[in-house]
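#help-structures
NK: newbie question, is this the right format to request a structure? protein is tetrahydrofolate synthase
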Amino acid sequence: MEKISSLITRQRRGEKPPISNKLEIMSLYLKILGLDEDINKLNIIHVAGTKGKGSTCIFCEAILRECGFRTGVFTSPHLIDVRERFRIDGIDISEDKFLQYFWDCWNRLEENTTEQLSMPPLFLFLTILAFKIFISEQVDAAIIEVGLGGKEDSTNVIKEPTVCGITSLGMDHTEILGDTLGQIASHKAGIFKVPLEVTEPFDCKQMKGLELGLSGDHQFYNAALAVSLSRCWLQRTGNWGKKYQKDSNLPDEFIRGLSTAHFSGRAQIVYDSSPNSDCSEILSKNCGGELIFYLDGAHSPESMETCAKWFSNAVKRYEISSHSSFEVENAEESLENGHFLHESKTLEQLEKSFRRILLFNCLDVRNPHILLPRLVNTCASSVISSDLHGIDLSWQFNLQRIWEKITHGKEMTTLLEKDFKIDNKEILPPHEFLYDDASSGCHSHNYLARSAVIPSLPLTIKWLRDCVRDHPSTRLQVLVTGSLHLVGDVLKLLKR
């Protein structure tokens, strides 16, 4: 990790990259490693886009694996372990193989550095490492996600991709890619190579009724692109054949792939069972409290809106299923006692046991004034209410003030900022923070300020678990979003 960390440059967004002619320099690095010619032998699916490109790559991987091919996937960023960026046949590369290929690339590049050619920055090095791994592992299909943009991205050293695709576009990295969709599209389209053939988009209606491995209605668009990319890859590599031409329906292999795809930190639901909990079945009626994390690394305005829709639908489905289970269980108990159930708990009454929490952070280069309203307004339209000196927490307190202003129309006095002392690391908001006047929700004028800055994630997880432990009839539904780095750190603490 020390070597990897040494490659991280302190470049800020909007600044010019530390090296110019990135693709020319990438070619020099590849030539040093003897990879420059071998890259052209890889059958590459190259994917760019503002949002959904990683998910599209994972869908492609799952489809082609079901078709019997050995796959390699390069995505970014990683959530917990850098090895997540390099998948072979659907799983992260092993530690032994990662170290073998890492030191091979590192040592040979270090031996050939000069004043004019230093060691590559982190993402360039990881891109080079991906090519090294996929060539050495002799994958049938190499699926490569663009890092940033496309035209000037280090992955665009690929000269002869088998097929390229672009996912949904949005306003992100505008200080680098431009502040119009046309300028952004120009960068993304830079991965296309001549001769260029445009395939017809796959009709999402053909996937009606299919349960995708990745949650969220937006994933059907990513899945549709993955179907087109996979079909084109099979055709161009001579592997389509009569097997897949029997009818216009999706081949069984495609359906299985779309249904089994998995990608951590993207519309992921984790049921927490803390070391202090004796509950092995999170939905058991005998379980104490429930702590459910809804994790999505959304960090652009469009993806925040998509995340909010997914979260709203997910919590509604959970509440309905919980309500149905409650009525069935009570009906069975009543029949056992020789009488019928005359009344059951209504959904409105059941909802009182739910508390929804937003666990949010974003990089200081993001604009929370744009991100948070998308989240709040989309949840509100789905009837999901928003009542929800060594360390510098000023950015987090700024996020809190913005959140309070959006949800309550004015800035509230924080529970922590005024008397915060970094020496006292155990300062946490009281549990009444969640439960006082909860039945009145966001429409009450007597509520406490319902947001707080907690100085670390471990303390945050502890606080949430303590809330559930001390209030056993409560279910906490925690939406974690704003940053893939935040999502990764939470997953690490939950040991998932």
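mod (FA): yep, format's fine, and the tokens are attached above. The CA atoms of residues 213 and 260 lie 5 Å apart.
NK: thank you!
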